[in-house]
Specification:
Elements: H1 2-23, H2 27-48, H3 53-79, H4 85-89, H5 91-114
Length: about 120
Amino acid sequence: MKIWKRAAEFSQQLFYLADQLEQRRLFRFAEQLPGATLSITNNIAEGSGSLSEMDFANFLNTARRSTFEVANILSVLGTNGYLKDVEWSEILPQLEDESKMLLAFIKTLRTSAAT
C-alpha cells in the first residue's frame, strides 16, 4: 500500500532522530517519538487485515491521529530548541501529506461501506 510505504520511508528519519535524542539524554522524547511513529505504520498494517471497510477506516483514523502526535512532538522539540529547523521542517510536510492521504482513503472506505 502506498500510504504504508510512505509512512515507512519517513519513519526511518524519525527513528534516527529518536536515537539522537536518546544520545542527548532527552529520554522521554526519545521514547515517545518512535512509539507514535510506529503507530502510523502498525495501524495501517493492522487495519488492512480487517474484515470490514468500516473497521479498516477506524484503524486508518488511528494512524492519522498518530501523524498529529508525531507532528506535535516535533513541534515541541523544535520550539524548545532541541531540533534544527531543517530536521523538523523536512518531516512536517511529509506528515501532512500522509494525513491527507489517510483521510482520503478513510472517506473512500466509509463511502463504500455506506452503499
